[in-house]
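DM from R.C. (forwarded with permission)

"hey, sorry to bug you on a friday — could you get me a structure for this? deadline for the figure draft is monday and I only need the backbone to look sensible"
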Amino acid sequence: MKGKKYALLQKEMVQQDLTRKELGYHLNLSESAITSRLIGRQDWRDSEQYKVLDFLGLPHNKKHLYFPPGGITEDDADAPITQKLTPKQLLLQLAKGCVEMVEGMP
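My reply, with the result:
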């Protein structure tokens, strides 16, 4: 089975209840431009990648996970894009990411 491009990014968008239209508005891009990037028809610019990470509250050091070369990694090739996180689960996930980021600081 061929994996979904940018599966982890799309999964995060679903969990945060973020539409392509809303993301496009934040990036000053059309919904179709976002779709073109998510399906791999057009490459993401570096500046767009960082804006997406910031908008989703994700650390920059995880960019390679959300924007892998070609849009697919072995780990996310079959990643399900299904359930949304509860607010408590989302908060715990964000807190864990913050702790990991702080632990990685000098």
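R.C.: lifesaver. The helical segments are 7-15, 20-27, 31-38, 46-56, 63-66, 87-103.
me: no worries. The chain has six helices and no strands.
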